[in-house]
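Researcher: Re-running this chain for the archive, since the previous output was lost when a drive failed. Same request as before.
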Amino acid sequence: MGLFDNVEKGIEKAVRGAFSLGSKTLQPVEMANALRRELDDKAMTLDAGRTLAPNVFNIELGDTDFERARAWGVTLAEELCDVVINHARSQGYVLQGPVRVAFNHQAELRAGQFEVLSSTEKEGAAPSQSAPAQAPQNAPARPTQSPVAQVQPAPVYKRQPTPSPVQPEAPQGQQVLDIDGQRYSLNAASIVLGRSSEADILIDDTGVSRKHLEIRTSAGVSTAVDLGSTNGSYVDGHRVQGSAPLQDGSNITMGRTQITFRVLPVRGGPR
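Model: Regenerated structure tokens:
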């Protein structure tokens, strides 16, 4: 499950509403994107095929945003834990223990501002101390088979990653995008699509955000990652919740633009 899964539209509206007050709004998707960036920035290669990434995250929030995050603690934290787990799985990162998310109070941060601090903890290790903050009077009760709520300086939630599914076989061939009759080869690990001149592939569509979608390729497998776009991204008619795997023939929709992901056979290679 990714952030704001379709089966939880009611939760999505409620969480978004909780963060829609004030002149500068902090959206949960901003925290989700920040967690993905933190994973990528702090990932460390141990040896061939093993990359270690942090599993403990402290999200520092100002007065107003901290109260909203605490009010929606379990709902929001569960989704953020899933964001970390799904991104780590898609990138092949190794997590040493359960994923934990804490919301901490930092009075000097203004509304809309936040910071993410991360660390790596093995399962069973004593939890690292969060920044001092007032403990909630009514900590969320421990739900059945849900993240654990502990009375600490700030609410802390954790979720154990489930075993990774069998990874799809890497396609044998050149991966390309077909956009309005133009063909673009995916020869980099990361390709950003959007209206910005800084995007790797420029999309001339007012329904597309400046940096709308990223195509990430690792070990020959490509995934589509929405970059917090205004109108969302769709793969084969399904909205991208975090990331979505791409297969030969996958249709990507951004605004009014239709994109086809293709895997072309390599000359002399397997048919």
